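REQUEST ID: PR-0412
SUBMITTED BY: lab tech R.K.
PRIORITY: routine
TASK: structure prediction, single protein chain
INPUT:
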Amino acid sequence: MPLQIGITGGIGSGKSVVCRIFEALGVAVYDADSRAKWLINNDPTLKNNLIRLLGTAAYLPDGTYNRAWVAAQVFDNEALLQQLNALVHPRVFEDTAAWLKLHLRAKYVLRESALATKATGLDKLVVVHAPLAMRLARTKHRDPQRTEAEIQHIMARQMPDEERLKMADFIIQNDESQLLIRQVMQLHEVFGK
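STATUS: complete
OUTPUT:
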């Protein structure tokens, strides 16, 4: 069984960039957010459950997930958001387990998720950290369709940086004070032993 390394950090921290560097080194990376989006659009059981919860407006006429509409529904409805997550998260965990079986011979694999904790079956946790103002600016640039208020709302719902940093076995500083590649290479050497 490979060592399972979690990569986490708040929105705009640079988790995806760090994971792309690991991928360039030949490390298998499970991107929970991307896989959740794929499952929401392609898993018939999950789609039916989401329609039961949210109604037919949850999907556009072409069958794709109506992400903007759903986001508007759960924006200020914590109970509905929890129900939505209760449908999606277990399916992502099942998908993760199936993916892991494909990589049993690897020394280590990475699981990228904003929700990663050691409680989700991880051996080590890497936190990608950047200051809030930098994260906000990056997210505004990356997601121009989102308002600053929407981004701040997402940030407010995520685990506070202080808590995330306390859980970390390793921290990658992505504040432009250190080279990311050097930090990733150092961890690659540690995990690959």
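NOTES: Residues 74 and 82 are 9 Å apart (CA to CA).
REVIEWED BY: pending
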